[in-house]
Predict the structure.
Amino acid sequence: MQEDLAIRARGLRRSFGDLRAVDGIDLDVPRGMIFAILGPNGAGKTTLLRMLATLTRPDAGSAQVMGHDLSEHPEKVRAAIAMTGQFASLDEDLTGRENLVMLARLWGFGWRAAKARAGELLAAFDLAEAARKQVKDYSGGMRRRLDIAASLIVTPGVLFLDEPTTGLDPSARAGVWRLIRGLSAEGVTILLTTQYLEEADQLAGRIAVIDHGRKIAEGTSRELKAQTGSGVLHVTPLDPGNRAIALGILGEAAQADPEGARLSVPVTDDAEAAAHLARLAEAGIRLAEFSLGAPSLDEVFFALTGKEAA
Amino acid sequence: MSIPLPRGPRPAAPSPASSALTFAWRAVLKFRHVPEQLFDLVMTPIMFTLLFTFIFGGALAGSSTAYLQWFIPGILVQTTVFNTVYSGMGLSTDLSKGLFDRFRSLPIWSLAPFAGLMVGDMLRHSIAGAIILGIGLALGYRPEAGLTGILASFALLLAIGFGWGWIFIVLGLVVRTPMTVMTLGFAVLFPVTFASNIMVDPVTMPGWLQAFVAVNPVSLMTTAMRALMAGTATLGEIGLALLGPAILTALLAPLTLALYRRR
């Protein structure tokens, strides 16, 4: 076991009946990193996370979490991690404060210390005003924040977040992102699942793309973009009237941006991009702007799986 | 944003008693936040008491007052047995919300959440029992053994609630939704509470049914409750009444743990 890995998994498998939810996944998550598992609905993300969190038993394979073996010492793994599931695991009848006090008590805090800890977390998570409201009256964003707070009663070595922003509005999502970055800055290793390419791109130091229970790619956001072997050339003709002609010159793979005047064409390297630009210049089409960009994660996902991302 | 993450050593894991106490506190809070649930618990037994006492009581026992003496110990058993369904529904809700996943990841005695459910149940049974008994007393019910009889019979009632509670905890673990737990629960409880000696003396029932009523654990519990209230209880009667709950606990508590660990 390498000391610098928070999670090391080899050949994890789990089936439900005929469905191979997780079909042999290896994972190395370095300590202190935000690591994203990216995949569409039903790819096996939640099952993988639940196995690593000792909540679902693997059919095969092994894993160590913070140096503890998943099957030999599940209780030590449990003590080293915290998990926030897809659905708020809170008692809706109780208030936010009562939920946190209850969990702090169950972690072994005395009543006074439990109340103090609950107060600290409520303040830090901007929930102090709602502390005495029943959780059933919380908004989606408040619920998610309380749920994450409930995972931080004691400092976990690894925090598992299953689709932390699914169903949240953009401002609540931004709030959760800030929270995740803040936790990472405090040194907590975070393993999160997401179906949002943007989320993985924004937050994660490394991304594993999974589909149908298998890992189909892994790397940094930049590496994944490079792995598809292509970038995209964007050009904007100075005279919008020339767009159709330019599109013809760029070839069949070129696409016009439905909203703007921009045209995009996938290229394998800079030489091909230069060739496109030269042909446009020969045809006398002046450009207002051109740029060569790495593909978006959407395009990467499409290239890797042959499907549109969910 | 700064998040307070304690760096020092974690507190020592709580004792089983302390974690069960925390779960019991949760049950009390639920009573405080959702007082309506008390209404669910006592509405049916109150209706039964009034219905049987004033409509059927005279015909069954000669007078309403005479019938009350027969009926109150029985309706207490029925109330308790029916109310065990609610702990199964509560468990099913916690499971479907993922709350149990969180409990499972805590350093607590693995049966503590169930012990907590049971403590909450005991509280529910005591409150519901006290309300029903209070109504009975107001209507003219007089237990011959007085306060001692009441305390002894309530102790038995809690033992009954504890034993029967396991049935619905197991159902809560295997059945997917709280509604299914309730439907299944009442499908079992209606026959066993009606085919018993709670409402009527079984002498007028057909022989095969009398044979069932005689061994029905609900009848044995009711007989012991009546005897405790009357101050005539024998060890044999109490033993028979406790047999059902004891067997249920012996079989279903380990099963609960196995099902819970397998999930």
Chain A has a mean pLDDT of 88. The longest helix of chain A spans residues 170-185.
